[in-house]
Design a protein that fits this description.
It is a single chain. The protein is of the alpha+beta class. It has a single domain, classed as Aminopeptidase (3-Layer(aba) Sandwich), CATH 3.40.630.30. The protein is built from 6 helices and 8 strands. An 8-stranded mixed β-sheet has the order 1-2-3-4-5-6-8-7, with helices on both faces. 29% of the residues are buried.
Length: 185
């Protein structure tokens, strides 16, 4: 799948990432504010982590998309599940949008696309994690049907040793679709 959107008057290409995108993904991850990366289970600035992500994409172990402005990645989204666990029906959604591209509809487009792809792949429950101060991200996820379920105190430690809380949001895609159908939301 590849599509081109007009975001902020610029053409942005949305497609699955591949091995050829490694350098652009490294630049993107390196340019993101570190605080925006805290909710990720792994630091995508690390080459091994990035290589594992691209390998998982290649193997079909996750669903992910990137948004490109020319040759530069400006956003990523992924949904993944541990298919061997008791919770294989639960998929974790991760969204990163470059600060300059926020508030333009790109994150919403990517989030909608990854939710649909995860549901098509068998997800019956979706989760998302973020720090509670990421108000814009929380609002976006809530607009898509996610609801706060937990706040884990001091769950994350940044590179400077500072502790941060972690908010856990979740949604039931079937229930959300039924609600949308019934109430036009």
């Amino acid at each position: 799948m590849s599509e081109t959107l007009a975001i902020g008057g610029k053409p942005v290409v949305i497609r699955a990432p591949g091995a050829a995108d490694k350098a652009a993904l490294q630049r993107f991850a390196g340019a993101m504010p570190v605080h925006d990366l805290l909710f990720l289970a792994r630091d995508i600035r690390e080459p091994k982590v990035l290589a594992a992500w691209l390998a998982a994409q290649e193997n079909g172990d996750l669903v992910s998309l990137i948004a490109l402005d020319g040759d530069e990645v400006v956003a990523t989204v992924a949904a993944l599940s541990d298919r061997l666990s008791w919770s294989a029906h639960v998929w974790d959604v991760r969204l990163l949008v470059a600060p300059a591209m926020r508030g333009k509809g790109l994150g919403r487009h990517l989030l909608d696309a990854v939710i649909a792809a995860a549901v098509a792949a068998g997800a019956t429950r979706l989760t998302a994690r973020m720090t509670p101060d990421q108000a814009g991200a929380i609002t976006l996820f809530e607009e898509c049907g996610f609801r706060a379920e937990a706040l884990l105190k001091d769950q994350l430690r940044d590179a400077d040793g500072n502790l941060h809380d972690l908010a856990l949001l979740a949604m039931d895609p079937q229930r959300q679709a039924a609600r949308r159908d019934a109430f036009g939301e």
